[in-house]
Every structure is written in structure tokens, then in C-alpha cells.
Specification:
Elements lengths: L12 E5 L3 E7 L10 E6 L12 E6 L2 E9 L2 E5 L4 E4 L4 E5 L4 E7 L8 E8 L10 E5 L6 E3 L5 E6 L1 E2 L2 E2 L11 E5 L12
Antiparallel strand pairs: 1-2, 2-3, 3-10, 4-9, 5-8, 5-10, 6-7, 6-9, 8-11, 12-13, 13-16, 14-15
Length: 193
């Protein structure tokens, strides 16, 4: 795995998406060459239900993968292949749109109105653009958690890390997707993979 040097820092920008969801977009405004193969990264952190409840009603995707990771609240989802469910804190939805899929994602928030998560879009290589759509929903309990001696915790969603393999598989870019928590006041260096 190669590590790219940091070229610049980019501040996420507020934007409206879907049926009027207020979120912050880290990238996905125009030129995405610096982020290849990633196309978009949205942070949908919000504690005002009126700013997210309209959600993302039925819409199409093609030629990409979307990854939705929830930290607080819930997201009800469904797609044109008949998949449906609810993802909550620590759950992930990994959708390969391939030749095309229509889906919806409707954030509901938690008992005090908080909603927080991320959505990442990854471009499929040209050879896989017309692959059959595929959907993976993984619950938090099925994501391995590794704890280091210093208290650092890593949830391994996809790929392998510290001897654990994540439950999401068959992803074109062969990524490593981790949720890392470093205790306050600590610094952590870790070898890749």
C-alpha cells in the first residue's frame, strides 16, 4: 500500500443534498482528480431534525460504490433489488451500484434528535462499471474491534488490520476501511495494513 503525501488541507463546505438535508461536503465539488478513486465525502452530522428528516428519497446511482457509516441516529434504506433495513450507530451499508440501482436513504436520528454519519463514494474501474449491483449491510456487532496496549481501538470494516479481517468483501478497489479511536492525550503511529 502506498501512502500519498498531503498536498493541502481542505475544509468541508456546507451544502444541501437530497430533499434538503443540511450536511458538510469534504470533497466532491467539481474536480476530484486529487481524491481518485474517491468521488465524494459527506459528513451528515446534525442535531436539528428539520435539517435532515426530508432525507434522500428514491434516486439512481450507476458505476460507483456508496459507503454509508452511521455514528449516531438511524438511517432507513431500501433499493430496487428489494433490499431494505435500518442501520444505526456503528453499522455500515456498502452498495455497489454497478450497471444501475435506485435507492433511498432516510435519516431518522436518535431519541434526542442527533444524526451523524459519513457517506463516501468510490468510482468503479471501467471494467466493472456494468457489473451487477450488489448490496452489503453490516451491523456493528459483526465488525471486529481490536484494542492496542495504549487503549487505541480500531474497528476493521473492510480489509485487514492488526490480524483482523473486516466483514465487507469483494470491493473493487480492495480498500482498508477503519474506524480508529485514539485515547485523549495519546499519539499513535501504526504501520499500514
Amino acid at each position: 500500500m502506498s501512502i500519498r503525501p498531503v498536498k493541502r488541507l481542505v475544509k468541508a463546505k456546507p451544502t444541501l443534498e437530497g430533499a434538503g438535508v443540511h450536511l458538510r461536503r469534504a470533497f466532491g465539488f467539481g474536480n476530484t482528480a486529487d481524491f481518485d478513486p474517491f468521488l465524494l465525502l459527506d459528513d451528515f452530522r446534525n442535531d436539528i431534525p428539520a435539517d435532515y428528516l426530508a432525507g434522500f428519497p428514491w434516486h439512481p446511482h450507476r458505476g460507483i460504490e456508496t459507503v454509508t457509516y452511521v455514528l449516531a441516529g438511524t438511517v432507513e434504506h431500501g433499493d430496487s433489488m428489494g433490499n431494505q433495513g435500518v442501520i444505526g450507530p456503528g453499522d455500515i451499508q456498502w452498495m455497489t451500484a454497478g450497471r444501475g440501482i435506485v435507492h433511498q436513504e432516510m435519516p431518522k436520528g436518535d431519541s434526542i434528535g442527533q444524526m451523524h454519519g459519513f457517506q463516501l463514494w468510490a468510482n468503479l474501474p471501467s471494467s466493472l462499471k456494468m457489473t451487477a449491483p450488489r448490496y452489503q449491510e453490516v451491523k456493528s456487532a459483526d465488525i471486529p474491534l481490536v484494542t492496542d496496549d495504549d487503549g487505541t481501538q480500531v474497528r476493521v470494516v473492510c480489509g485487514s488490520f492488526w490480524g483482523k479481517k473486516g466483514p465487507v468483501d469483494g470491493v473493487a478497489a480492495d480498500p482498508t476501511y477503519l474506524d480508529v479511536s485514539v485515547p485523549p492525550g495519546k499519539t499513535k503511529r501504526s504501520p499500514s495494513r
